[in-house]
Amino acid sequence: MEWTTHSLSGVVAGFALTGGDWKGAVAGGIAGMLPDIDEPRSHIGRPFFFLSIPINQIVGHRTLTHSLLFTLVLGLILWPFLSSSVVLGTVAGILAHIAGDMVTGKVKFLYPLKTSIGIPVSRFNYLLIDRITRLGLGVIVLWVVGSWTFSYFNFKF
Fold first, then answer.
1. Cβ–Cβ under 8 Å, residues 50 and 57
2. How far apart are alpha carbons 56 and 40 in whole angstroms?
3. Which one of 2, 35, 103, 124 has the lowest number of neighbouring Cβ atoms within 10 Å?
4. H or E element: which one contains 106?
């Protein structure tokens, strides 16, 4: 999936997993892009090329950073330093990214095992799934933000 879809899925997953905490949503949105640090041409890989290039050369794309191992280790590293909502939002964002990539291709979710998990799709279906998912997630985000705005400012119909 594309970075905007990954970020939106992370926002929604982080918000949901933390029970509606905005910090979890923000952390999820950022973390939703994080697994693609292993791809130098990705939205997050370009500015962090000094990490992206060696990771890609050592393990490749959709391997370590798209795994349960990466998710758990990063969550455990962050746990002592950040609030639980930020850590849970981060984990949710990464898992949402991985799930999105599994729907549009294969990942090494059980890395370091060589098994790939996911559904390989054509480029057309990849774009179709990405656009429909992005639209649906955008509607969810707008609905939540709109609901919060109306309740916060006490708008009446």
1. no
2. 7
3. 124
4. strand 106-107
